[in-house]
From TrEMBL:
Matches recorded under InterPro entries: NAD(P)-bd_dom_sf, SDR_fam, Sec_Metab_Biosynth_Oxidored
UniProt protein name: NAD(P)-binding protein
UniProt-listed Gene3D superfamilies: NAD(P)-binding Rossmann-like Domain
Membrane-spanning parts: none
UniProtKB keywords: Oxidoreductase
Top-level division of the source organism's lineage: Eukaryota
GO MF annotation terms: oxidoreductase activity
Pfam families xref list: adh_short
Amino acid sequence: MPAFSAVLAANKQNAPKAIRPVAVLVGGTSGCGRGVAEVLAKYTEGNAHIVLVGRSEEAANEIIASLPKPVDGAKYEFVKCDVSSMRNVGIVSRDLASRLDKINYLVLSPGILSLAGRRPTEDGVDYKARVAIHYYSRFKFARDLAPLLEKASAAGEPARVLTILDSWMGGPSGVRPDDMKLEKDYSVRNAALVATTYNDGAVAALAKRYPTVSFIHGHPGVVNTNINRDLPFGIKQLTGLLGSLISTSVTTCGENMVYSLFDPKIPTGAHYRTSKGDAQTSKPNLSNADVEKIWQHSTEICDGK
């Protein structure tokens, strides 16, 4: 990624000007998602339809109140969803699909940091450490809403999905054919590895099935958010202190993530970006067989919800 001043200049130059973009931000009420929402609203100067999907209406209202006033026909809205449940994700996806004409930008950033042991959701996948929130909900939103992104692409408009997690950690060791739900060999580290690996695989699988849409797995770096809210008090204080010393702000993260969303050099297909915005080349790629295993497993978890 270029110097931050160049990022700002590129975002201003590449912001959509001839259209009114529709952006759906899952996890958009805090952290990186909030940063992206604020940056998108800034560069579109209120000429956008921005949907914040999250748990806290209070947080969403605070964000919406801070955004540029929407111009005629544009709007900002909040949709409540606990994304740990695929049933809830399905309800919201169907609602959005029934009333939106298109989606230009789908940003997926819900997150939680916890040291707790495995806690299965109603779908039988891990909630607490990472996997339901950091992967399955993202997969289901991306797959269910992909037809709306295809509509934007067919009209000659941007159509991009960005999942913000950790594009450098995943790899073939994160695919366990006999333990795809991570029931047998659970640990916080393994849960993190599975979530990042599955995001990698989903990006590749979705790009293959929706070739007119761009799918990006981005790494935001260390960002000063409240993702550590569920850690024990002492560890929370320590991680907060360390984070304040080495992290970037939510706004800076938003600018860096929007740089990928706006970048005209990113074609359709699957893309993996480092925290500097460069192509991720420092880890082994998943095989086509691994990608298909992740696709099959994910559809089994998410279908019919």
